[in-house]
Amino acid sequence: MNAVRSLLVFIWLVLTLIPQGLALVLSSLVLKDEKVWWWFAVPWLRGVVEAARIVGGVRYRLHGEENLPPAEDMRRVILCPKHQSTWETFYFPSMTPHPLAYVFKKELLRIPFFGWAIGAIDMIHIDRSKGGESWKKVAEQGSALMDRGKWIIMFPEGTRTERGTKGNYKAGATRLAVATGAYVIPIAVTSGRCWPRRSFSLRPGVIDVSIGQPVSAQGREPGELMDEVEHWIESEMRRLDPDAYQT
Fold first, then answer.
1. pLDDT one-digit tens code per residue, 231-247
2. Which among 12, 19, 39 is positioned nearest to 28, based on CA atoms?
3. % of the chain beyond a pLDDT of 70
4. Fold topology of 2-244
């Protein structure tokens, strides 16, 4: 039964992505980026989350929503979530009060429809092989996007991790926060419980999303700030999903 549910969600995702992706790309030629975001990107992303909930049985609980600055708050914000599955890449843009800009590898732009769509929205795509040049692009473009009211979202572990494990936390997000005077918001997500990484086999259940308090990067060092982010996230993961952590 789970296989059938997963297949139905996947079919819905693909069939809706094609027209929605084309509409987004075409509308980006004549509309401002913020309108494209709210009119095309967000409704489709919410649709994926709802399809996973209604058809796939993947529900979610949100903790600490009061820690998200409201829409009228224009402070610079960088979200640093735990990354266990594809689910959170759909969820966060669908629920934040500000448009999000992901920092992602440029190879994703080659994916038909999906890559074209994210390429049409003002985000930060980088060539990981270029090192310092990539960081310069992140710093310059990230600062400009935050000045326009966008929030930056960076997964500090860089890639999806298995449920119950911890990846290597990199200081890119906190380095950007220190350079731009932004606030960092750590987020714990137990998505691996219902949507394992590198899989489209959904498991009915509840994903917990816990949002920590914003931490100012003013006067901080990137390394020690990321240590604080890592400690909060990993401690919260153990609280939310104790069965996944045996030690």
1. 999 999 999 999 999 76
2. 39
3. 98
4. Glycerol-3-phosphate (1)-acyltransferase (3.40.1130)
